[in-house]
Amino acid sequence: MNKLIVRQISGAIARRIVMQAQIGQNMAAGEKFGMIKFGSRTELYVPARDEVKCLVKIGDKVKAD
């Protein structure tokens, strides 16, 4: 099982994070755990291993379905 850490940081003005998951909860790939709004951001920490490839570059915009 791969463990990832997700950190959601609210924006300075709006402070809008809607979180449905609980701390430490196991999640399946593609499962929705919450939503951020109005300038908030999400950080994703992944294990440093050779088989992990990052396809996103600084400045890229990402969007969930």
Write the layout of secondary structure elements.
Blueprint: E1 5-9, E2 16-19, E3 34-37, E4 41-45
Antiparallel strand pairs: 1-4, 2-3
What does the model show?
The chain has 65 residues and is mostly beta strands. Helix content is 0%, strand content 28%. Strands 1-4 form a two-stranded antiparallel sheet. A two-stranded antiparallel sheet has the order 2-3.
User: What is the radius of gyration?
Assistant: 13 Å
Q: State the helicity in percent bands.
A: under 10%
Overall pLDDT, averaged? Answer: 77
* Distance separating the two termini: 24 Å
Sheet having the most strands: 2 strands, antiparallel
Could you name the ranges where pLDDT drops below 50 across 5 or more consecutive residues? none
Q: Tally the helices.
A: 0
Which structural class should the secondary elements be placed in?
mainly beta
Order of helices and strands: EEEE
Question: Approximately what portion of the residues adopt beta-strand conformation?
Answer: 25-35%
Number of strand elements: 4
Question: What brief labels describe this structure?
Answer:
65 residues; mainly beta; two-stranded antiparallel ribbon; 0% helix; globular
Short précis:
The protein is mainly β and 65 residues long. It contains no helices and 4 strands. The model has no long low-confidence stretch (mean pLDDT 77).
